[in-house]
């Protein structure tokens, strides 16, 4: 097919509608290009439960094998299970998933050996250039000896590795509702949780890439309504929701109230710091709560603030030797997991923390939820840069106000802060605000929105 790769090769991955924007023929070329760019003798490939995933994944594997690369196919897996395979086998990897996008979408998340990310500046642009060249000149010459295709099941090894990273030996019995959203959590949770003192109440564990119950995006409040209701009905200790490829997790307490990803980041950071001797660097993006750096310092750690996005987090993790990183989007990164993100490991930390004491989750997370946040508010604007400049002009030079432009524009005072970032793909500005109390947060939020939407 004559594909427009500018539409499907994004900053960190490949993603588009199948078969309108890309198909198995193109997937095969991506496999060959991935083999060429990584220079690997062997790679590992996995896929999620979308109807198009097995075919695309198989085509990618054939493309790599045609150039003499041995391919280990691990089949159905979560994205962090693919990262596990890349790390444990020390091989470059490719995961076929479109995460929480609608059913007609699919994509490829790629990494080098040891789960090191492949983005625009680390190989993805080179892969795109090769595929475009081959579209004009014809496919590359096959290797004299093609590579082998080998099947391997890594689920039990993945589960064992995760459980080796968290002490779950002394947790009390807990009742937990898990909403897999018909995504890969339905595949991984039963094995990871096996043998733990948990009463598991499964929701939507049937693997179904058409997402018949709700979108597999737990950050949208509409998609956790079923989980919240079920937790209350069951009298459960907590609820956990995973996104489509199960690399993100979202937590609700025993009352069905959402636990913010910032609170989870702070809780896990404290536990990881204790595990690593009470010191270490913890990464957080600039939209996480003030609570995160406070808790990190209180527990002997050094907080480092970064831009939003997994490539920035992983880059800073590698550079600083950080032990942990967290984002407002419920991505959690661990040095002990090749600096990759795994929602399942974060979930195990929450279970261990809750099960290691007698109180409810709501009481446990109070210490990690100290401020009032607005959540992310999107506004459609005609000119993103014009509105950012207007905000800067309104606040610049005021007493007690600091501005920085690490990622978008962040305005900070002693009592509140807000950040405004432009979307890369839509004519939107994204606002996040936080303050010491509800009234101040609302005043801060509304003042910023008045300028954004003027």
Automatic annotation (TrEMBL):
Ranges of residues in domain Alpha-D-phosphohexomutase C-terminal: 376-448
Keywords from the named record: Isomerase, Magnesium, Metal-binding, Phosphoprotein
Keyword Isomerase: yes
Annotated ranges, domain Alpha-D-phosphohexomutase alpha/beta/alpha: 7-134, 157-256, 266-371
Xref: SUPFAM superfamilies: Phosphoglucomutase, C-terminal domain (SSF55957), Phosphoglucomutase, first 3 domains (SSF53738)
UniProt GO molecular function: metal ion binding; phosphomannomutase activity
CDD domains: PMM_PGM (cd03089)
GO terms under biological process: carbohydrate metabolic process
Pfam families in alphabetical order: PGM_PMM_I, PGM_PMM_II, PGM_PMM_III, PGM_PMM_IV
Keyword Phosphoprotein annotated: yes
Record EC number: 5.4.2.8
Cofactor: Mg(2+)
UniProt family annotation: Belongs to the phosphohexose mutase family.
Protein name from the UniProt record: Phosphomannomutase
Source species: Streptomyces spectabilis
């Amino acid at each position: 097919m004559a594909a427009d790769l500018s539409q499907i090769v994004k900053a960190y991955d490949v993603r588009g509608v199948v078969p309108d924007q890309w198909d198995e023929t193109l997937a095969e070329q991506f496999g060959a290009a991935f083999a060429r760019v990584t220079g690997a003798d062997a790679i590992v490939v996995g896929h999620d439960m979308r109807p198009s995933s097995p075919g695309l994944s198989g085509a990618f594997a054939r493309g790599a094998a045609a150039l003499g690369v041995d391919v280990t196919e691990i089949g159905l897996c979560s994205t962090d299970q693919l990262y596990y395979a890349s790390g444990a086998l020390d091989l470059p990897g490719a995961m076929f998933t479109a995460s929480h996008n609608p059913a007609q979408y699919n994509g490829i998340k790629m990494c080098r050996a040891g789960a090191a990310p492949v983005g625009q500046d680390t190989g993805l642009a080179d892969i795109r250039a090769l595929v475009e060249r081959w579209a004009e000149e014809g496919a590359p010459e096959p290797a004299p000896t093609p590579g082998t295709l080998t099947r391997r099941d890594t689920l039990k090894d993945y589960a064992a590795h995760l459980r080796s990273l968290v002490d779950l030996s002394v947790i009390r019995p807990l009742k937990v509702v898990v909403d897999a959203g018909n995504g890969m959590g339905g595949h991984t949770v039963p094995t990871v949780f096996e043998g733990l003192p948990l009463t598991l109440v499964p929701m939507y564990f049937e693997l179904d890439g058409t997402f018949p119950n709700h979108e597999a995006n737990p950050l949208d409040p509409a998609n956790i309504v079923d989980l919240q209701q079920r937790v209350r009905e069951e009298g459960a200790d907590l609820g956990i929701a995973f996104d489509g490829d199960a690399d993100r997790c979202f937590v609700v307490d025993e009352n069905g109230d959402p636990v913010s990803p910032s609170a989870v980041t702070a809780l896990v950071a404290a536990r990881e710091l204790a595990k690593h001797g009470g010191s270490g660097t913890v990464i957080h993006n600039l939209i996480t709560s003030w609570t995160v750096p406070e808790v990190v310092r209180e527990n002997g750690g050094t907080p480092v603030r970064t831009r939003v996005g997994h490539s920035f987090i992983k880059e800073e993790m590698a550079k600083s030797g950080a032990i942990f990183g967290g984002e407002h989007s419920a991505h959690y990164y661990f040095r002990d997991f090749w600096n990759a993100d795994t929602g399942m490991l974060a979930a195990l930390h929450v279970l261990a923390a809750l099960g290691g004491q007698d109180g409810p989750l709501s009481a446990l997370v109070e210490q990690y939820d100290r401020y009032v946040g607005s959540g992310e508010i999107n506004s459609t604007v005609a000119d993103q840069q014009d509105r950012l400049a207007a905000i800067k002009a309104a606040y610049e030079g005021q007493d007690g106000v600091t501005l920085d432009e690490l990622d978008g524009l962040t305005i900070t005072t002693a009592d509140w802060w807000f950040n405004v970032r432009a979307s890369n793909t839509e004519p939107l500005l994204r606002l996040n605000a936080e303050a010491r109390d509800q009234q101040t947060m609302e005043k801060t939020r509304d003042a910023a929105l008045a300028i954004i939407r003027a």
